[in-house]
């Protein structure tokens, strides 16, 4: 049924005052849309009948207040209606079909996008929150209005947080500061962000908030005259140059001051000893002219100018930023922008809202937001676990960006501290997967190099290059992390299937048979009983240590299908050979650091796969108490890669000795991962080096070179 079949109320005197206030705020909508909004109030009020907020007010006052916040942004009727009904699917008997039939499918989609997943079962509260958040982000990718409703919902909840219990207040405030305020910033909605941050700060740290707020008020009282003089001088000079402007003083918020005091280790006095002004004019050309006037009036501070008009921030923000030396010796921070830029800076994706399709025009913040959300949708498709997805999103919510140039002159925005490898994945996943080095401002540098704004970056690739687990230790973007993990999971599965096959074959060989001799029907029956769909799943499970190959082999052989072939003849099977390339299922024990050339043994650790130990490792005695988990392995002929080893070196304690030893290790083509002093006195010291070598022979060469330095009294592998 459509909304037209339900006559909307014409007697406004019957409406509560808070609904009349909303009706006034949506006066910009056509009359028929206003009637649909009032109808939504009727449906919502009936659905929430008898429900109250913690404060005792009727529950419907909350969704009406959320709709009122969105009306301030001039949102369309569908968004206002969805805001009024945003809790109905979760908290009332109203169904999605009824919503869709009454108000249309777009409204039902919006309400469904905001609805939490309380009815699903999760192992923890954190997982439930993560899954709910993931669903909301995916709904955002389909329709940006979902996040606007969610942010308005969170803003009103924060404004009325006082009625909640202390623990709930702190949890909601922390979530607001960690997730919702950064999302508002990422979408360019600075007005939302600022209020969410201050409300979150007040709820989480009430005493700190009170102290800082009082000090801000006192400081502003003392500075009013100086602010007026600077504002007057700026306005007068700009008007003389016939540049249409309005100049307004900017006041730092309590949260802004508190977070800068912590991150920049500055005192309150240092942060407040800055005058902030915003200059708003009519065009980009006028912005640059106003910049020239400001620089002529007060001397600019070196290296403190930023042009976000030519290179907008990732959230669409545009403005010129400069710092001037004021008449009182204090710095003056000035932002210069157009009215359009000012609106986008304050409201972001909600500025000048007229809902557009993906193909239609949009402001810069809307366009940037869609790019970001599209990237998030790709990320979640490759990230099965909700908590991992949220971790990637948090990484992408960095407030500071680094702006970099591609060889073609395109601009890429990455979080601060991004590496050349993050840049490679930002260009394309294939570029990241095959990256080997980077050319930064024409200098050849490693992939782990941290990048700085303005650099020209070119990625060098090789078809044979593949992602390395060590990459996860230095990338910072969610896209890079997701792509690397996805590749490694695929690699692990392939390695696990291959290794599991070799382990099961060896176990069957010990019983005088092999996998090919097992009848298909017997194998199918075993797989079905073990709840595996394919043989590959069983083989992978064996390699990851979740099933014992000897037990699987025994069960297959003892079945009737193999009995007809005669009793198996047991004999000793060959060791499984490893090349070191099976890193997906193999790991090397930190207790003994096995190297190619060492006599080794494998231990099946559940979920981890095979952990390789040296046979003389002290822990092997304990491992052999579980013989079914011990795997007979040996090094193959074509061993590859670098392996970690530890060197214990006793030296004469004198200046330069560390550098001498390090140079000797480097001369032997070994990379030093870490070095630490184990013991140290006036005469001697013991150093523990963690290095990378190819094999035992390479390690012996390193030790020989170290002993020849003349500063070493002893050098040996550790543990022995």
TrEMBL record:
The transmembrane residues are none
Location of the ACT domain? 646-720
Name the InterPro entries for this protein: ACT-like_dom_sf (IPR045865), ACT_dom (IPR002912), Beta-grasp_dom_sf (IPR012675), HD/PDEase_dom (IPR003607), HD_domain (IPR006674), NT_sf (IPR043519), RelA/Spo_fam (IPR004811), RelA/SpoT_AH_RIS (IPR045600)
Under which EC number(s) is this enzyme classified?
3.1.7.2
Output the SMART domains linked to this UniProt entry. HDc, RelA_SpoT
Domain TGS: residue ranges = 400-461
What residues does the HD domain cover? 59-158
Asked if DNA-binding is a keyword of the record, the answer is no
- Judging by the UniProt lineage, the source's domain of life is Bacteria
Which EC main class describes this enzyme?
A: hydrolase
Q: Which UniProt keywords apply?
A: Hydrolase
Q: Which family does it belong to?
A: Belongs to the relA/spoT family.
Q: What does this protein do?
A: In eubacteria ppGpp (guanosine 3'-diphosphate 5'-diphosphate) is a mediator of the stringent response that coordinates a variety of cellular activities in response to changes in nutritional abundance.
Descriptive protein name? guanosine-3',5'-bis(diphosphate) 3'-diphosphatase
Organism equals: Dyella jejuensis
Taxonomy of the source species: Bacteria, Pseudomonadati, Pseudomonadota, Gammaproteobacteria, Lysobacterales
């Amino acid at each position: 049924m459509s909304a037209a079949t339900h006559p909307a109320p014409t007697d406004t005197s019957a409406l509560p005052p808070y609904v009349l206030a909303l009706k006034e705020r949506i006066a910009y909508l056509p009359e028929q849309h206003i009637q649909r909004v009032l109808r939504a109030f009727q449906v919502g009020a009936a659905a929430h009948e008898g429900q109250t907020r913690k404060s005792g007010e009727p529950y419907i006052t909350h969704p009406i207040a959320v709709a009122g916040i969105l009306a301030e942004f001039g949102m369309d009727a569908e968004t206002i209606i969805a805001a009024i009904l945003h809790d109905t699917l979760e908290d009332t008997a109203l169904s999605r079909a009824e919503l869709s039939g009454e108000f249309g499918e777009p409204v039902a989609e919006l309400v469904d996008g905001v609805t939490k997943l309380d009815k699903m079962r999760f192992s923890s509260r954190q997982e439930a929150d993560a899954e709910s958040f993931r669903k909301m982000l995916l709904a955002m990718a389909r329709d940006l209005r979902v996040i606007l409703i969610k942010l308005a919902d969170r803003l009103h909840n924060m404004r009325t947080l006082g009625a909640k219990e202390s623990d709930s207040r702190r949890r909601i405030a922390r979530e607001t500061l960690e997730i919702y305020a950064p999302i508002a910033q990422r979408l360019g909605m600075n007005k939302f962000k600022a209020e969410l941050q201050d409300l979150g700060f007040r709820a989480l740290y009430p005493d700190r908030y009170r102290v800082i707020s009082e000090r801000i008020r006192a400081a502003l009282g003392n500075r009013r005259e100086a602010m007026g003089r600077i504002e007057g001088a700026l306005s007068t000079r700009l008007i003389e140059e016939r540049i249409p402007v309005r100049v307004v003083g900017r006041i730092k918020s309590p949260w802004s001051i508190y977070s800068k005091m912590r991150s920049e280790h500055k005192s309150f006095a240092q942060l407040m000893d800055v005058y902030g002004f915003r200059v708003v004019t009519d065009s980009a050309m006028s912005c640059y002219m106003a910049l020239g006037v400001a620089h002529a009036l007060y001397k600019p501070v070196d290296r403190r100018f930023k042009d976000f008009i030519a290179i907008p921030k990732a959230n669409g923000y545009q403005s010129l930023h400069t710092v001037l030396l004021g008449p009182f010796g204090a710095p003056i921070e000035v932002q210069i922008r157009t009215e359009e830029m000012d609106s986008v800076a304050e409201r972001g994706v909600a500025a000048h809202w007229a809902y557009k399709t993906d193909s239609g025009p949009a402001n810069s913040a809307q366009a940037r937001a869609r790019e970001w959300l599209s990237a998030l949708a790709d990320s979640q498709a490759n990230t099965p676990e909700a908590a991992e997805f949220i971790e990637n999103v948090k990484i992408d919510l960095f407030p500071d960006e680094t702006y970099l140039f591609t060889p073609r002159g395109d601009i890429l925005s990455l979080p601060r501290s991004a590496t050349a490898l993050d840049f490679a994945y930002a260009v394309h996943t294939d570029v990241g997967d095959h990256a080997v080095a980077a050319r930064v401002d024409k200098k050849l540098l490693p992939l782990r190099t941290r990048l700085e704004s303005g650099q020209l970056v070119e990625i060098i690739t090789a078809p044979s290059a593949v992602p390395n687990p060590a990459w996860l230790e230095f990338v910072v973007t969610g896209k890079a992390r997701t792509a690397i993990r996805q590749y490694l999971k695929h690699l692990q599965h392939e390695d696990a299937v291959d290794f599991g096959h070799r382990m099961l074959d060896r176990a069957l060989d010990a019983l005088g048979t092999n996998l090919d001799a097992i009848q298909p029907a017997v194998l199918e029956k075993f797989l079905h009983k073990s709840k595996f769909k394919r043989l590959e799943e069983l083989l992978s499970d064996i390699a990851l240590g979740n099933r014992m190959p000897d037990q699987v082999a025994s069960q297959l052989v003892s079945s009737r299908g193999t009995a007809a072939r005669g009793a198996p003849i047991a004999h000793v099977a060959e060791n499984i050979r490893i090349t070191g390339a099976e890193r997906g299922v193999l790991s090397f024990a930190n207790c003994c650091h096995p190297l190619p050339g060492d006599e080794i043994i494998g231990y099946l650790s559940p979920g981890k796969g095979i952990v390789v130990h040296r046979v003389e490792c002290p822990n092997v005695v304990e491992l052999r108490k579980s013989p079914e988990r011990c795997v007979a392995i040996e090094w193959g002929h074509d061993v590859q890669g670098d392996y970690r080893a530890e060197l214990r070196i006793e030296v004469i304690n004198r200046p330069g000795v560390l550098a001498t030893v390090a140079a000797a290790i480097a001369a032997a083509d070994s990379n030093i991962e870490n070095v630490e002093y184990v013991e140290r006195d006036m005469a001697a010291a013991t150093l523990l080096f963690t290095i990378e070598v190819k094999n035992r022979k390479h390690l012996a060469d390193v030790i020989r070179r170290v002993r020849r330095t003349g500063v070493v009294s002893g050098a040996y592998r550790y543990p022995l």
